[in-house]
Design a protein that fits this description.
three-stranded antiparallel sheet; 19% helix; alpha+beta; Alpha-Beta Plaits; 8 helices; 18% strand
Length: 293
Amino acid sequence: MTMLPPPSPKKLGLVIDLDTCVGCHACAVACKEWNDGGQFGPLPDENPYGKEPLGVWFNRVHTYEVDRDQGLGARDERKIKSSASPAVQPPKSAAGSDPHGHRSAGPWPLAPSPSRAMTIHFPRSCLHCETPACVTVCPTGASYKRGEDGIVLVDEDQCIGCGLCAWACPYGAREMSPVDGVMKKCTLCVDRIYNENLPEAEREPACVQVCPTRARHFGDLGDPDSKVSKLVAERGGVALMPELGYQPVNRYLPPRPRRAGDEVEAAGEAPVETLDADALPPVLRWLDRILSR
């Protein structure tokens, strides 16, 4: 079994803002493009233009509809889409339970009332845990954690494709490549963030570079004075399932409160603005008469 290195003061990771993520999948596509031909590529696709395409993705984006008062993680969440591409389907589950195995009193999913519903786009990739179970179960040492920056990687030359690490990971962050017969996972673009041939502004993961809403942030979460650490402190960033004890490094920023339709109605209708045509310049009065016909 593989041993973990001593805890590193440097903890590189991602901070993902669930308030501004729009589920466009740009991060997933850019990740696929950059890593397809790099040190940890290729990321093969099977039947890519067929009816049921399959492939390996380091990053996937899931979309949930949740009760805005309970937030993501409520058992009445409704998974309405799960994909890194339109062809990927959500997991099937037994009647009366959700894909995570939670039992429910009635048939799953349970939808929140329309006025209380909120859509959450949830990007999912490796969280580069402090004590990753995927590393300690690896029988060959192929799965390992770097001591200098905390990044978790897979040495494909040592991987035998046993799948133990995927079974051990509770976040579903690893995918077996049936073409290559080895395990694949997010590398935080380690071949990019240290690449001195790139301008310093581009030395960050591809998914962070392309996010159109700046919902993804990269930096050292072990440094309390770093931009990402300050952002987490300011917005109350959370770790994913901390009760499991694996200490994930990545953080998620929760959505900000939103006003539902019932609150808007309670607040009353907005005042109607009226236009005093006599106070307008002659040209605008003429234009107002033309447009009012």
